[in-house]
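hey so u asked for the seq, here:
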Amino acid sequence: MQPISADEFEVLVADAIDALPDEILDMLDNVAVMIDDEHPEDLLGLYEGIPRTERDDYGGFELPDRVTLYRLALCDHVHDIDELKHEVMVTVVHELAHHLGIDDDKLHELGWG
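ran it, structure tokens below
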């Protein structure tokens, strides 16, 4: 599909985060969700950081983990706005799951791969 504007895409990402259950939101800690146009490897999303299951407590000065969603790749991956909304949600869940320590195999097993 034709790419939507950065502002429209930001709303879709915010809506996806807002739709997450409170139990999931309460587990997120020091993670920033970012938007970029594209990744050199045509990824839909990327998690960068140390999963919560593998890190010690933060001392207060660490940079947040980062989840990035790639607008152009996601738009190119779908046919219409409804598919885009769905794929944004799947990508948000997938990348935040990595922050929580859930690997790709478990995500596939749960139907989010």
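The chain has one domain: 6-53+63-109. DSSP finds five helices and three strands in the chain.
lmk if thats what u needed
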